[in-house]
Amino acid sequence: MAGLNTFPLNLFFIPYYGLAIISFFGHISAVHSKKMKSKLLGIAPIHQSYGILMMGIILTGVLLFGLTNGFNGVEIPKEYEIMIGK
Questions:
Q1: In this predicted structure, what is the pLDDT of residue 59?
Q2: What integer pLDDT is reported at residue 72 of this predicted model?
Q3: What does the longest C-alpha to C-alpha distance in the chain come to?
Q4: Which 8-state DSSP code applies to residue 29?
Q5: What angle do CA 49, 54, 8 make, to 5 degrees?
Q6: Helix 7-35 vs helix 45-67: crossing angle, to nearest 10
Q7: SS3 for 43?
């Protein structure tokens, strides 16, 4: 969490964690679209896959929003500054 809330480090960690979550849902979505053959609740498998991917994108935004205190950052206690190189 310290990396998400410290300036030079967050330029690496926000895309890193964001792309990790989105790629996880992207892979689940791709497998679902290939393996699923029938409609579920009247929705075609390809559209279900888009829904899965959109859920991943939304979840990524919600998680990053929460972990960074609404994109304002969280103040790191002095005791932990050694972990981020200060």
A1: 97
A2: 77
A3: 56
A4: H
A5: 135
A6: 160
A7: strand
Which tokens go with 34?
A: 């290939």
Closest residue by Cα to residue 45 from 57, 60, 28, 61: 28
Phi, psi for residue 39 in degrees, rounded to 5: -75, 150
Quote the tokens at residue 15.
Answer: 């895309």
* Per-residue CA distances from 36 to 24, 27, 28, 48, 55 (Å): 18, 14, 12, 9, 18
> Can you tell me the distance from the alpha carbon of 41 to that of 11, in angstroms, rounded to the nearest whole number?
41
Q: 68-82 burial by CB neighbour count: b if 16+ within 10 A, else e?
A: beeeeeeeeeeeeee
| Cα 15 from Cα 36, distance rounded (Å) | 30
How does residue 84 score in pLDDT terms, banded at 50, 70 and 90? low
Partners of residue 43 on adjacent β-strands: 40
Query: Do residues 70 and 24 make contact, with C-beta atoms less than 8 angstroms apart?
Result: no
